[in-house]
Amino acid sequence: MKKEDKTNVMRVLDGKKIAYESHSYEADPTLSGAEIAGILGEDTEKVFKTLVTQGKSGSYYVFVVPVEAELDLKKAAKAAGEKSVSMIKQKELLPLTGYVHGGCSPIGMKKQFKTFIHETAPSYEKVFVSAGKVGCQIELAPDELMKVSGAVVADIV
What is the distance between the terminal CA atoms of the chain, rounded to a whole angstrom? Predict the structure, then answer.
């Protein structure tokens, strides 16, 4: 990628000297996670989506799950130590995280929120997450993703 194509996610990873590979495709916000995995030529289990929730306490939490999986809100609440969590409204995403729907990444949000990643992630050599904009994914080692995002492994689907 040319220097001007770098996303905030890539700048964070570069700054921390974390190896990654970026993958671009035509930016289409209607694409499903499974369709993006197909474009990347990868199994859907290795491609992760980033979901932002708010707990009953008012705190925000980030959950990183395989694109075809559904976040189990009860398991998510238990992992976060909350009575309950609910998905934030789409219009709240950009002001809260700095990312738009379909381009949300667990790396480089405006504020670092407690982050959880699905328990299958560490079993892969590399995983994919959004690079911070629609049409761009990054591929990196799950331990590096966990280190830079502060994510802890949890049973959340």
Answer: 34
CB 119 within 8 A of CB 131: no
CA–CA separation, 26 vs 11, rounded Å?
21
Distance between CA 82 and CA 57 in Å, rounded?
Answer: 7
Q: Which H/E stretch holds residue 2?
A: none
> Where on the phi/psi map is residue 31: left (φ > 0), alpha (ψ -120 to 50), or beta?
beta
Angle at 91 between CA 25 and CA 138, to 5 degrees: 25
Domains of the chain as residue ranges with CATH: 3-154 (3.90.960.10)
Radius of gyration of the chain (CA): 14
Helices (H), 67-134: 73-80, 90-97
Closest CA to 151 of 88, 142, 82: 142
85-120 pLDDT, tens per residue?
999 999 999 999 999 999 999 999 999 999 999 999
Q: Can you tell me the distance from the alpha carbon of 90 to that of 101, in angstroms, rounded to the nearest whole number?
A: 7
